[in-house]
Design brief:
- This protein has 15 helices and 22 strands.
- Helix 2 packs across helix 14, helix 8 packs antiparallel against helix 9 and helix 9 crosses helix 11.
- It is globular.
- The chain starts with 18 loop residues before the first strand and ends with a strand.
Length: 467
């Protein structure tokens, strides 16, 4: 049912401090996204490591559409609409390896490159129009790769992936994401709109209330959000407390020795999040206690701490990216790549999120979480995908990550609360949550395609954003 609060949709409604509630709850708006957003944007389908050999494929579903992404040659990845051109049956599910795409309904087949391989009783179609091999070939969509991720775009006129992602790679390329591999892969069905789920990881403003345990050793938790066209990031440029110190919110003083706090921070993250930082990072930090002097100056401790972690990574054969401390600082903490990818990174690890609508339900989404780590070649664990697709499975996510369970616990209540007659809009922080409002500004820019010409006449805000 469409919300009774629904008003005329207009891209200009979104402000840095204002996002309409209907963007999260309206089935009509979700349909506009399906027709005009997801058909036009680059979106992550999988990682290259899932397509190691010719014939390896991954099925990528979004709304009620499905695509199959496949390695067709050692140096080529292609993607096709996942549909039989005879009677419409889907050809693949999940992932695997194949020599041909086979329809189990009537036995039609296609080669890996989408060309027709076989039609059972082909002569039946003699004299019919549009029955050439090309007419029956699988319909291809654009593909591109960056950082080990494989992206697809159904729009044949889409801009090149490099142009779409810019300027994000300028900040992130030094981290060598293409050399990361899966530590774990989990997919969960959440009782909320895909944007509610994504936004929980698109700002750091929630940490104080949702993850209070992190305030003890993570330093000042006040963030600032920065916009780069469609994309955004947040960082801690105004921090008054360093890593290893308690947040000013705790009322506790700055310790004379940051080393125990740094050790505790890595321990906490490795045991309750199990991502971003590796297990060897956590062990290497302990060397601070015996190989450095007590100090309340993080600049004094950062160089040896990162040096210890680099030594551990190189000793394992994993290597280490050539990221300077200046690049590390400029890269920020968290990036949102429009429309539905989030990642948080360290020197040798990253935590990546992907949010997808679950069919045509505005109150449900599929959330994919990937912990990526730099391993020695061939030393990465075997990829095992875990699915939490039962209606209440998300409530048991603490077995995977306590921190993510804390985030998920908010989402059901947020989705319910947004339907209240008293709630007309999310009042996003214009300093800490502008990456959230920027997401909605661009979603509306695509979803309200008929308003683009008017938006263009009105001009754009800083960074080329539609107002």
């Amino acid at each position: 049912m469409t919300s009774s609060k629904s008003k005329t949709l207009n891209p200009a409604i979104v402000r840095d401090d204002f996002v309409p509630a209907e963007d999260y709850t309206s089935r009509d708006f979700l349909e506009k996204e399906k027709q005009k957003l997801w058909t036009k944007v680059w979106q992550v389908a999988c990682r290259e490591e899932e397509l190691k050999s010719v014939g390896d494929f991954v099925t990528y579903n979004i709304h009620d559409e499905s695509f199959v992404v496949v390695r067709t040659a050692e140096d080529r990845i292609q993607a096709f609409y996942n549909v039989c051109m005879h009677r419409g049956r889907r050809l693949t599910a999940g992932c695997g390896r194949t020599r041909v795409f086979h329809c189990n309904y009537h036995g039609w087949r296609w080669n890996l490159d989408g060309s027709l391989n076989r039609i059972l009783d082909r002569d039946d179609w003699k004299g019919c129009p549009s029955v050439s091999d090309e007419d029956f070939s699988l319909r291809e969509v654009k593909t591109g790769t960056w950082g080990g991720f494989v992206y697809i775009n159904p729009d044949p006129d889409a801009e090149p992936l490099a142009d779409y992602l810019a300027p994000m790679p300028d900040f992130i390329d030094p981290f060598e994401f293409e050399k990361l591999r899966y530590r774990w892969y989990v997919s969960v069905k959440l009782p909320c709109n895909w944007k509610v789920a994504l936004e929980a990881f698109n700002e750091g403003y929630h940490v104080a209330a949702t993850h209070p345990q992190l305030l003890e050793n993570a330093g000042d938790d006040v963030t600032r959000s920065f916009i780069y066209g469609k994309h955004g990031m947040f960082a801690y440029p105004t921090a008054t407390r360093p890593w290893g110190a308690p947040s000013p919110r705790t009322g506790k003083p700055l310790p004379e020795d940051l080393r125990p706090g740094l050790v505790n921070f890595f321990d906490e993250m490795n045991h309750t999040l199990r991502a971003i930082y590796t297990e060897r990072d956590t062990e290497a930090v302990r060397r601070l206690m015996t190989e450095t002097e007590p100090s309340a100056d993080i600049n004094t401790l950062m160089e040896p701490m990162v040096g210890f972690q680099r030594e551990a990574a190189e000793a394992s054969g994993a290597g280490w990216p050539e990221v300077t401390m200046e690049q590390f600082g400029k890269a920020g903490v968290n990036w949102h790549v429009f429309p539905n990818q989030i990642f948080l990174m360290y020197f040798d690890g990253a935590l990546c999120y992907r949010a997808r609508p679950n069919g045509d339900d505005p109150d449900s989404c599929i959330y994919d979480i990937w912990s990526l780590v730099r391993y020695a070649p061939g030393a990465e664990p075997r990829l095992e995908r875990q699915n939490f697709y039962g209606d209440d499975d998300w409530k048991n996510f603490g077995a995977i990550s306590i921190i993510l369970q804390q985030d998920f616990d908010n989402m059901e209540q947020v989705q319910k609360g947004m339907k209240s007659a008293a709630f007309n809009a999310a009042r996003t922080s214009p300093l800490q949550e502008t990456s959230v409002s920027n997401l909605h500004r661009w979603v509306r820019h695509y979803a309200m395609e008929e308003d683009r010409s008017e938006t263009g006449r009105k001009g754009t805000a800083a960074g080329g954003l539609p107002q």
